Amino acid sequence: MIKCRQCGKSTLLKNILPGYRYISLEDIDIRETAQSDPRHFLSIYNDHVILDEIQRVPGLLSYLQTHIERDVRMIKNITGLSSFTRFLRLCAGRCGQILNITSLAEDTGITRKTAESWLSVLETGCVVYLLKPYYRNFGKRLVKSPKLYFYDTGLAVSLLGLTSPGQIDSFYMRGALFENLIVMELLKKRLFAGKNDGLYFWRDSNGLETDVIEEEGQELYAYEIKSSETMDTHFFDSLRKICTLSPIPVRNTAVIYGGKTAQPASGYCGAYIPWKNI
Predict the structure, then answer these.
(1) What pLDDT digit, counting tens, does each position of 20-45 carry?
(2) Cα-based torsion angle of the residue sequence 103, 109, 112, 116 in order, rounded to the nearest 10 degrees
(3) Which pLDDT does position 75 carry in this prediction?
(4) Number of alpha carbons in the 13 Å side-chain half-sphere of residue 95
(5) Can you give the pLDDT at residue 66?
(6) Which positions of the chain have pLDDT values less than 50?
(7) Is 201 helix (H, G, I), strand (E, B) or coil?
C-alpha cells in the first residue's frame, strides 16, 4: 500500500488483515536479515504477511523488482528479459521527463509498438504514472505528451543502480527523483482524500513549464518542485509568468522544496512548502 506518510496505512492493514503477521523493517535485527539475504527473508515471510518500512532495505526492493518484472511479463506474455529489463531501467532514467516513446523504443532496441505495449502494461500495473499536460490552452502552443514518473520512487532508485541513501545526494538525477517523490505524494494525498487524479503539468513550445497544476474545484494551483534546501526567489520565475498567462492567482502558487521552513504566499510571491509538509 502506497499512501502519504503517517496516514494510518499500517493500522488499516492490521485491521482489515487480522490474520496476517506484521513485520516492520525498522527493527534492526529483522532489517539486517533482509539486507544480508533477501531470498531467505522472503522465504520465511512468504505468505500472509504485512511488510512495513520496506524502503529501508534497498536490496529487498531490488529483489522484489525481479518479481515485478516477472509478473508484468506474465501479464503480457513478454519475452526477451534483457530487453524488458533495459526498458525498465531506461524508463527510470527518464523520471520527470516528457515521454518520447520513439526515443525510448530506439534506445531499448525495440519497435515503437512494442514500447507502447510495455508502457501500457507498466501503467496498468501501477508501476509507472503518466502525468498528463493541462488540457486548457493559456494562449500558447502546448506540449501534448505526458511526463513519466514511477509510483514507487524507491523502485526507480533501485533500477538506476543506487544502493544506499547517501548516493542520492551527489547523483545527477537527484532533482528528478525528488520531483518524482513529490508528484507521487501529491497524487497519493488526493487519492487518499477520495478525490480524483486532478494533477497535470503545463509546458508550452518555448519551454516555459510548471511542474504541477492541481485542479481543486474551480480553483487552480501551480507548483514548482526544487530539491534545494535553500529558498531562492528565482524559483518563482516561471510561476510568475504562468500567472500572467492563466487565471491562476499568485496566492495559489508555491515552491515545494527540500528545506524545512514554510513561508506563506504574499501579494507578489507564492508560498514555500517544505517537502515534509505535503
Answers:
(1) 888 888 888 888 888 888 778 878 87
(2) -90
(3) 61
(4) 29
(5) 67
(6) none
(7) strand
Query: Can you tell me the distance from the alpha carbon of 251 to that of 256, in angstroms, rounded to the nearest whole number?
Result: 14
**Has this prediction a pTM greater than 0.90?**
no
pLDDT of residue 69: 66
Strand ranges in the chain using DSSP code E only, listed in sequence order: 21-24, 49-52, 128-131, 147-150, 199-203, 209-216, 219-226, 253-257, 271-274
Q: Lay out the sheet containing 219-226: strands in order across.
A: 199-203, 209-216, 219-226, 253-257, 271-274
CA-to-CA distance for 214 and 185, rounded, in angstroms?
13
Cell 526492493 -> residue:
61
Contacts for 270-277: CB closer than 8 Å, 24+ residues apart: 270/222, 270/236, 270/239, 272/231, 273/223, 275/178, 275/181, 275/182, 275/185, 276/5
CA atoms of 3 and 8, how far apart (whole Å) = 9
Domain boundaries, the chain: 1-56
Helix (H, G, I), strand (E, B) or coil at 42: helix
In this predicted structure, what is the pLDDT of residue 230? 95
Distance CA 81, CA 93 (A): 18
Q: Do the strands 219-226 and 253-257 form a parallel or antiparallel pair, or are they unpaired? A: parallel
